[in-house]
Amino acid sequence: MTMMTDKLTVRVIGVGGIGSCLLDNLCRVLNYGCSMYAFEEVDIGLVDGDIYEENNKPRQRFEERGNKSEVTVQRLADSFPNLDFQAFPLYINDQNINTVLDGADVVFLCVDNHKTRRMVCHYCVERDNVVLISGGNDSGEDGSLGQMGDVQVFIRKDGENKTLPPHEYHKEIENPPEDDQHPDEVEEREGCLEEQQSAPQLLISNNFAATLMLNAFHGLVSGLFDHPLADQVGFKYEEVQFDLRGSKVVTRSIKKGE
Amino acid sequence: MSGGKKQVKPGPGFGPAGGPDSAEEGQELKRPDAMEMVKKAEQSLGTVNIVYGPHDVNFDFAGLTIAEAENALRGLLGVEKGSEAYVNGHKVDNKSETKLQGGERLEFMREAGQKG
């Protein structure tokens, strides 16, 4: 799907581990690569109700404390003058999702809970045209030590699904487990598991997931996904999975019912 | 260096007529089915194809139950406890009683990464 639009509206939901890694490079390509991508105007909105705290420093870039979307917008606006930034200092929920995502061409979903993923997936399947790129990695609690992760790519064009929405092939997104909490349900936000979040491999995993998300975006914008043989060679896909312990990356093209 | 092209004689079974396995005139050439050969070899060796996330590897797991295979792979591949298991595409409900056979494909479903 080549994105032939003069104005590009982007929303990045979650400005934590993956989101903060994604944003610098995403803004760089949008600010300086506009002629290649042919966008005359880029509106980029950052959505996060969380605040930066000292314990975020091992994985997240910020110079001052405060709401993540506001602090990051302030920092990026100075570096990337061709982009129009907006801060949404809130957690996305049923009440505000229409306002926040209205008119979005591309949504980068970088959250740490499946309930938000489900909400955004359900929203996107009701839109006529939208691209959803969602990334996540393990927490470090399992045997992979946080070095496995994945990125899902959902393309909705002219009211039709061009790829499957993530909640249709990931049951845990459609039916999140009991311990999965939307941030509005958490009384005191603890961020991502204090004990593990300083583990260096998580920063690498966050960066890698962010790179795969940006790479998927480039594949879409450059028209690579449109090639008639893209499916067969793995250039068009629903999901990318990775395990950095073996530097393994595999794309998956998933058919309905799989 | 002679500079001339090295002449390569056709190998058995594949090349033009002349090799010991070549078909007689009028007979259809039959190529060996490589996948079938691999499958037979795996069956005889007790190899099971394991799929989990980006991993697609073979282990000598024939004779193990699926629960045993899952335990063995937990620390190595990070297979999560209670992952849904499929053998040759069919979901397995009783992992502790279902034994694996050589040549089978065992896939553990991997959940999407939760953390962002």
Describe the structure.
The complex is a heterodimer of chains A (258) and B (116). Chain A has 9 helices and 11 strands. Chain A has helices at 17-32, 34-37, 68-79, 97-101, 114-124, 166-169, 171-174, 200-221, 230-233; strands spanning 7-13, 41-47, 51-52, 66-67, 83-88, 106-109, 130-137, 148-157, 160-161, 239-243, 248-252. The model of chain A has no long low-confidence stretch (mean pLDDT 90). The longest helix of chain A is centred in the C-terminal third of the chain and has 22 residues, at 200-221. In chain A, strands 1, 2, 5, 6, 7, 8, 9, 10 and 11 form a 9-stranded mixed beta sheet that branches. Chain B is elongated and about 65 Å long. Chain B is of the alpha+beta class. The longest helix of chain B has 12 residues, at 34-45. Chain B has a domain at 34-109: Ubiquitin-like (UB roll), CATH 3.10.20. The interface between A and B is medium-sized, with 44 and 18 residues.
Brief overview, please?
Chain A has 258 residues and is of the alpha/beta class. Chain A is 32% helix and 22% strand.
Distance between the termini of chain B: 61 Å
What percent of residues of chain B are in strands? 15-25%
DSSP summary, beta strand count of chain A = 11
Count of β-strands of chain B:
5
Oligomer: heterodimer
Order of helices and strands of chain A: EHHEEEHEHEHEEEHHHHEE
Largest sheet of chain B: 5 strands, mixed
Name the beta content range of chain A. 15-25%
The CATH class of the domain at 34-109 in chain B is Alpha Beta
Helix count of chain A? 9
